[in-house]
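haha ok so turns out i had the wrong file open the whole time. this is the CORRECT one, sorry everyone. sequence first:
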Amino acid sequence: MQDWLTMTAADLGRGIAAGEIGPVALTRCYLDAIDAHPLKDRIYTQVTHCRAMAEAEAAEQRARLGLRRSLLDGVPISWKDLFDSAGTATESGSDLLKGRVPDQDAAVLSNATLMGSVCLGKTHMSELAFSGLGFNPVKETPPCVNDQKAAPGGSSSGAAASVAYGLAAGGIGSDTGGSVRIPSAWNDLVGLKTTSGRITLEGVVPLCLKFDTVGPLARSVEDAGLLLGVLEGTAGPDLRNPGSLKGCRFADLQNVAQNDLDQNVAAAHREAMDRLKDAGAEIVPLELPALDDAMGLSPILYTTEAYGLWKDVIEAAPQLMYAEILERFRSGAQFGGPDYVAAWAKLEQCRMAWDQAVAGFDAVLSPVSPILPPNLDRLQSDHDYYVRSNLMALRNTRIGNLMGLCGLSLPTGIPSCGLQVLGQPDCEEALLRIGAAIEAALA
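then structure:
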């Protein structure tokens, strides 16, 4: 049974289908592992024992009757603490929302429940999801699986830790500027950023509605595809037989994405490119000047919307917030409506330039994060280090959000060094198939 804690969600689902694994025993195995884990309180905000066991019992009965609703029917997963869950506190990592208990599930949680997935509980996150580091002194900071003295990546930090530490078969997070991909990379997982607007945000605590997306953190690309399916109430793509990379043409993004790389990140990226070439892919360096312009728009686009959404709540009790997050929100006050409208008009021009530049490629590649996980003690004591680390952590992943793309984070085999694979908007299935082939080449 201990092997269950390290198996992919897909393999657990296949075990249930074959009658080799019972959903009740599987869920109890995960709940026991969570309860016994010394770091559980840094990973989970709440463990929903009763809900999980009730859902597991229903899944077991469906399995006996041959009425399973999806391959992940009966598989236990975790949920970031910004997804509303009926009767369970949903506080988005902030004391501003302390004691907030929704009366119904978020739409994606409802979809996943209808498809048979088992809800283990809610996981810690960056405060109001406004940090790529996962450092949260207001609530808890989850551990990084590769270095417990380092940041886990955020804002879906607990979601990543729950999977990396064997305390969930998959985790559901959100990605506004990299919040699925960064923690996935730093904890050696697969993370899927979906296209803005593809998955409903009903019942999801917002940060920036024009950039907020929902996505899974998982042990494999196949798992990510299956979790995408349950979020949407579908079977998800069949990724059991990844195709060849022969004939694939990838852009290796140079400007912005490969500036000031940590030496380990640079080495991991070079090795990944070599492996993809060995597998038959063509790698073409790509410079895109419009990207520099787009990156310069980030402070206007993100902070203006975030502060606009949260100003009244924040200013009613600013003392409840971590100072670094409070300062970042308040920076949105310096921009006016004309600035925001002009920034969006400029971003649309940058997106057109991107579309033209990448039209001949199957995907665009870069490191997920240019830095390794920063030291937690120094983040707390050194303001400049915190600001620089947060901006650098988010820099490469934000490209995908600004350009309106879907994207994957894939492990490279070097700890905390992920490979980002960016696909065209609303082309998640194609991206996942390419990702599965890249995953096989990097294995």
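The chain has 16 helices and eleven strands.
again sry for the mixup
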